[in-house]
Fold each of these.
Amino acid sequence: MNTLVLASGSPRRLQLLESFGYACTVIKSTIEETMDETMSPEHIAQELALSKAQDVQRTLDEPRVILAADTLVSQNGRLFGKPGTIDEARACLQLFSGSVHQVTTGVAICDGSQQQLFYQTTDVEFWRLTEEDIERYISTKEPYDKAGGYGIQGMGGLFVKSIKGDYYTVVGLPIAAVYRHLKDFGCLPLVSVDN
Ligand SMILES: Cc1cn([C@H]2C[C@H](O)[C@@H](COP(=O)(O)OP(=O)(O)OP(=O)(O)O)O2)c(=O)[nH]c1=O
């Protein structure tokens, strides 16, 4: 059975794949993540995922199944990556307060002979946040390595009123869709017989 090369430095993506039984080798891509903001979030997320996968593919001596992903947040046509400063983190959370935004994760899987690109988008609705909610949250430092400046799987989950779509897409990898695509590459999770 084929094991997976995860072309991502995201601890969440590794944890998710491992918790669903995939054996992974991590090789982080070193591409500069630039985006053409005139393109749709779906297009950008898939293109960035593909660039990450291809970057790692170039470093390998033999063909392996490589998976890469990219997560972007958008609202009313505006794109939000990872906040670089406290002001950017605050601005994201103020905009998301009491409203709905979209989280899109694009995924690229390739093995040298075939490549598959897909994405999923989930709507996330936030409760109305107070200034204190936002300041306390920013002080956790949780926003900085996450698109849109929050983590639904962490303290950011306290702000989420509802979601429409796949939860794992928000965390950074739509695992059920990934499972379906990985089967085409002969890559299956290990199944424990203990439980
Ligand atoms: C919205 C949201 C994003 N995120 C994370 C998922 C991604 O790790 C990150 C978006 O940045 P990405 O550029 O997609 O990924 P990354 O830089 O962490 O890792 P790599 O490029 O090496 O693959 O935001 C959460 O963990 N929880 C959330 O609720």
Amino acid sequence: MSPSRKNGSLLPSTTMVNGTLDHDQAKRVLEPYLVILSGCDRGRQFKLEQQSYVIGRSDEADIVIGDPKISRRHCVFTVFKDRRILFEDLQSTNGSFLGGERIEKHWLTMQDRILAGDTVMRIDYKCYSEAESEQALYRAAYTDALTGILNRGAFMQRAHEEFSFCKRNNALLSIVMCDVDHFKRKNDTYGHPAGDQVLKDLSAILSEQMRKEDLLARYGGEEFIMLLRETPVDAAIGWAERIREAVMCYPFNYQGQTIPTTISIGVCTRRISAVDSLPTIIRIADDALYLAKQNGRNRLEIAQFNSAAGPR
Ligand SMILES: Nc1nc2c(ncn2[C@@H]2O[C@H](COP(=O)(O)OP(=O)(O)OP(=O)(O)O)[C@@H](O)[C@H]2O)c(=O)[nH]1
């Protein structure tokens, strides 16, 4: 099956027997994918199954891109029945570009590379198995094998982009670190696989509580890190308190054994200025987490600042 050119777009063609596809053909059917070629989401790809996809930074977007230079609702890809795809910019702040020129509306071909913020994307037509093997490579590089959430390296890469944006815009940022209390004891009491199950369930609880536009990663063994965009300190505290309670009330269980679990949390909220650095903000959140441990665990501590230089 080779893609054929029609109405200016490259479309996949498929051979059908009696109007239907046999199993092998079905496996080779080419479907449209949105592929992210560069920027903080490089390597991600999304199968375009719906009629339209809004791309943006906010929770309301169908495809959320972490690039801080992308608008909350930046652009939309509309997939027509004949599989042609129309690109439209949604009056984004920084615009969308093709070949160096700002575009509002454009019928896409597979050669087109759209630039939005620092993100370059294009449409590709792939069969399921090809897309699956590429997704597997992406997962291995950017996600944690046990929990499926971002790994530390991928988190730092994205968090640095977000941090640079916050610096330029003097924006609010919250870093939340959390760590399972007495996790070694759980491994010792219930076994390592039970400990693994706790980590998987915990990451699912945290994921559920996150907005799509925020970041969650496994930072170390039983330590997780979250970056909350534009979140004032009261909202960050309320959110952290909710996850602490959600974890405390969750019936963690492994092979019939109940595993009571709590977490300690450190929160650092900061309006980011030119003097700030991401490692420092993370260290301060980690110090607050350490304090939460010292003060009895199953609690949260908030890092306090009295100057641009650091915490009180
Ligand atoms: N099951 C499991 N255990 C892990 C994993 N990664 C790290 N650990 C264990 O997590 C435990 C962390 O123990 P500590 O750093 O002593 O901390 P803790 O027992 O949680 O005590 P506090 O943090 O002070 O409440 C160690 O026993 C590690 O072996 C993992 O992927 N799976």
